[in-house]
UniProtKB/TrEMBL annotation:
Its EC number(s): 7.1.1.-
Entry function: NDH-1 shuttles electrons from NADH, via FMN and iron-sulfur (Fe-S) centers, to quinones in the respiratory chain. The immediate electron acceptor for the enzyme in this species is believed to be a menaquinone. Couples the redox reaction to proton translocation (for every two electrons transferred, four hydrogen ions are translocated across the cytoplasmic membrane), and thus conserves the redox energy in a proton gradient.
Example of a GO MF term: NADH dehydrogenase (quinone) (non-electrogenic) activity
Phylogenetic classification of the source organism: Bacteria, Bacillati, Actinomycetota, Actinomycetes, Mycobacteriales
Subunit organization: NDH-1 is composed of 14 different subunits. Subunits NuoA, H, J, K, L, M, N constitute the membrane sector of the complex.
The name this protein goes by in its record: NADH-quinone oxidoreductase subunit A
Annotated organism of origin: [Mycobacterium] burgundiense
Topology in the lipid bilayer: Multi-pass membrane protein
Top-rank lineage group of the source organism: Bacteria
Gene that this sequence comes from: nuoA
Length: 119
C-alpha cells in the first residue's frame, strides 16, 4: 500500500482542486443570465427558429470526428510500439511500416475526395 500512497495523494489533490475551482467559481462568479446563454450551442451553427424543427447537422462535422478517431487510434498503436521497439526487431518495423502505409493511403483518399476541405 505504501507504493500507491503518492498516487492516491496526487489523485486527492487533483480532485480537491477540481471541486474547489468549480465551487469558488459558483460562489464568487458573476451571474448574468440571459436568453442567449440558455440556448444550446451547436459548434458555431446559428440555432434554427423554434418553429422550423430541430434541423440537421452538416455531414462535415461527423466526417471530421471520424477522421480524428482514426488518426487518434493510429497514435495509440504507435506509442506501445515505440516503447518496445528494441525488443521487437525487424519484423515489427515492417509491420508498423505496413500499418502506416495503410493509414496513409486512407488519408490520401480522404484528401483527394475533398474530405478535408471545409467549404
Amino acid at each position: 500500500m505504501e507504493l500507491y500512497t503518492p498516487i492516491l495523494v496526487l489523485g486527492a489533490i487533483a480532485a480537491a482542486f477540481a471541486v474547489g475551482s468549480v465551487g469558488i467559481a459558483l460562489v464568487i462568479g458573476p451571474r448574468r443570465d440571459n436568453r442567449a446563454k440558455a440556448m444550446a450551442y451547436e459548434c458555431g451553427i446559428e440555432p434554427a427558429p423554434q418553429d422550423a424543427g430541430s434541423g440537421r447537422f452538416p455531414i462535415k462535422f461527423y466526417l471530421t470526428a471520424m477522421l480524428f478517431i482514426i488518426f487518434d487510434i493510429e497514435i495509440v498503436f504507435l506509442y506501445p510500439w515505440a516503447v518496445a521497439f528494441d525488443q521487437l526487431g525487424t519484423f515489427a518495423l515492417i509491420e508498423m511500416g505496413l500499418f502506416m502505409a495503410t493509414v496513409f493511403v486512407a488519408y490520401a483518399y480522404v484528401w483527394r475526395r475533398g474530405g478535408l476541405d471545409w467549404d
